[in-house]
Structure formats: C-alpha cells, structure tokens
Design brief:
Blueprint (H helix, E strand, L loop, with lengths): L1 H6 L4 E5 L6 H14 L4 E5 L6 H7 L7 E3 L4 H14 L4 E5 L7 H5 L9 H18 L4 E6 L1 E3 L12 E3 L4 H5 L2 E13 L2 E14 L7 E7 L3 E2 L1 H11 L4 E3 L2 E4 L2 E4 L1 H10 L1 H33 L13 H8 L1
Parallel strand pairs: 1-5, 1-8, 2-3, 2-4, 4-5
Antiparallel strand pairs: 6-7, 8-9, 9-10, 10-11, 12-13, 13-14
Helix pairs in contact: 4-6, 8-9, 8-10
C-alpha cells in the first residue's frame, strides 16, 4: 500500500458502496500506511461518526491525525482546498459526500425542495480542488454512499444504484473503487467479520475492472493474515490439500491454525510477504515482456477502432 500512496499523489480517489461494506475502514488503512511514511493526514468527518477506537485498532495514530467535523458542505470543501494548498498533508479523507449538506439546505425548512444543490456544490468545488491537487502531492479520498436508482422508461439493464453528489466526482476521480460485502467470516457459530470485494470501476493510471477480495474483521480492520494466505496459495508459496496447509514442510490443520501461525511468527510473516512481493514483481515484468512482444508483432497491422457510447456504470451493470 506504501507504493500505492505514492502512485496516487495529486489524484482524487472515490470509494463507494452500500452501508457497512468497509469504506471508512479501507480509508483508515490508507491513513495508517501514510502515517508510517511520516505523512500528516486529515480526516474530514462530515458524518460526525468516526470511531477513534477502531482507527487506533487499525493502526492510525489518532494523536497526529487532524480531525475536522465541519458544519456544512461549503465549510468542509473550503477546508480541504486550504489544506491541499498548504502542501503539508499527505492524505485527506472526506467521509462522506452524502453528508456534505449545503448551507442553503441547513438554513431552509425540513420539507423544502433543494434541486441539485449538492451536485452544483461538488461540481464547483472539484474544479478548484483539481487545480490545487495538480500542484501538490496530496491524495484526496472521497467516501461516497449509494442510493437506489428509480427505474424509468427505457432504463432496463441500466445500473440499479447511483452515487450521491451528482456526476462531477465520477469525472474528476482518477480511481473509483466499488466495495461491497459478499459473505461473512465465521468462527464456530460466531460472525467475526465480512468477506469484502473491491472492483476498480475506473482507473486512469492502469487497466480498470480488476477485483480483489479480502477478510474484514469487526473492530480490527483488514485481516493481513488471510490476505497473506490467499496470495501465498495463488503464487504456490503455500500448498493446500483438503483442510491442511503446508509451508516449508510443516503442516497446519485448518485456516485458523495457519492464520495463528502467521500472526504469532513475525519472521515467517515477513518472509512470506517478501516472497509474495518477489512473485508479484516477477509476474509484472513477464507481463511487460509479453505486451512488448504483442505490440512489436502488431505494429504493421491496421487497427480497427470501435466507438462505444457506454459508460463505466453501464458496463458494470451489464457484467453484473
């Protein structure tokens, strides 16, 4: 994640998904990794719901974390712009876009109609923020909620959910991550976490539509041991036969036993992480060689360009 933070400097990232899917937890993990690099981080808590104990359990240093709980959307986005312009902050997280209430809505009555006020606010703010980000090394992360899209005539097959705050964020975001819960993690009869899937629905920095799955433990965050096991199995560092896992000629009965070994043995954990990184680096180099060979072989061949009017949301809906 350290190299990922450096990769996203000066960019806007949107993390969106349904309730209790792990959006804030993922953002807090990014903050924790940035703090390890010595970066100052800001958490704009527009929802006024940050759990400091969860943040500390994930690894966030809450003493150095700058926390803001703004009164309205204009105040929050103005603060974000000022912080980015200062050039002294590595990561800014806004939680969430849906909670950025415009001042005009706060001043009005409960039943008043406020058509597209929040969308206009986000559009105006992102024009300024994108300019500020281009001159800084800050990673700006917006957490967003989803709403059910009301079906209209001719809308069959379109996306069922829509994000809050209009379409501006979809255009300005360099990376959009769709996170959702796909299962539960249980220990005996007790549910201890969720199985979470993240899909990259937009990526200006590398190919999109990649997915990843991991375990999210309640009160602890992303389970690193489970992530190591999944990647080690994928790259043949670990082997599995029935309910037994084998690592360096030693067998462990069950996933829980393997997780306990990884959690309790720092040297083995770091060794496995190093082996995984080496495998990933080797795989990336091999892919580059194959891509270069394909480009060389097809340089002389005419390329047919096919226009597409579909959006990233429509592509996601068709795939679903």
């Amino acid at each position: 994640m350290t190299s990922l933070i450096e990769f996203l400097q000066g960019r806007v990232v949107e993390i969106y998904g349904p309730e209790a899917s792990g959006k804030t937890t993922l953002a807090l993990h990014v903050i924790a990794e940035a703090q390890k690099l010595g970066e100052y981080c800001v958490f704009v808590d527009a929802e006024h719901a940050l759990d400091s104990s969860l943040a500390e359990a994930i690894g966030v240093n809450t003493e150095t974390l700058l926390l803001s709980q703004p009164d309205c959307g204009e105040q929050a986005l103005s603060l974000v712009d000022t912080i980015i312009r200062s050039g002294s902050v590595g990561v800014v997280v806004v939680d969430s876009v849906a909670a950025l209430v415009p001042q005009s809505e706060l001043d009005g009555e409960m039943g008043d109609a406020h058509m597209a006020v929040q969308a206009r606010l986000m559009s105006q703010a992102l024009r300024k923020l994108s300019h500020s980000l281009s001159q800084s090394q800050t990673v700006l992360i917006f957490i967003n909620q989803v709403r059910s899209k009301i079906a209209t005539f001719g809308g069959f097959g379109g996306p069922k959910d829509v994000t809050c705050g209009g379409n501006a964020l979809k255009f300005y975001a360099s990376v959009r991550l769709n996170i959702k819960r796909i299962g539960l993690v249980k220990k005996a009869e007790e549910t201890i976490g969720s199985r979470v899937q993240i899909k990259v629905v937009k990526n200006k920095l590398s190919p999109p539509f990649k997915t990843i799955e991991f375990d999210l433990e309640f009160g602890k965050g992303i389970c690193q041991a489970s992530e190591i096991i999944d990647l080690a199995l994928k790259h043949k560092i670990l082997t599995k036969s029935g309910g037994f896992y084998t690592y360096e000629d030693k067998k462990y009965h069950g996933r829980d036993a393997m997780k306990a070994f990884i959690n309790n043995n720092e040297d083995a954990r770091e060794e496995m992480k190093l082996k995984i990184k080496e495998k990933l680096a080797a795989g990336h180099t091999e892919k580059e060689k194959v891509a270069d060979a394909i480009v060389t072989a097809t340089d002389s061949e005419p390329t047919e360009v096919i226009a597409s009017d579909s959006t990233d949301d429509e592509v996601a809906a068709v795939e679903a």
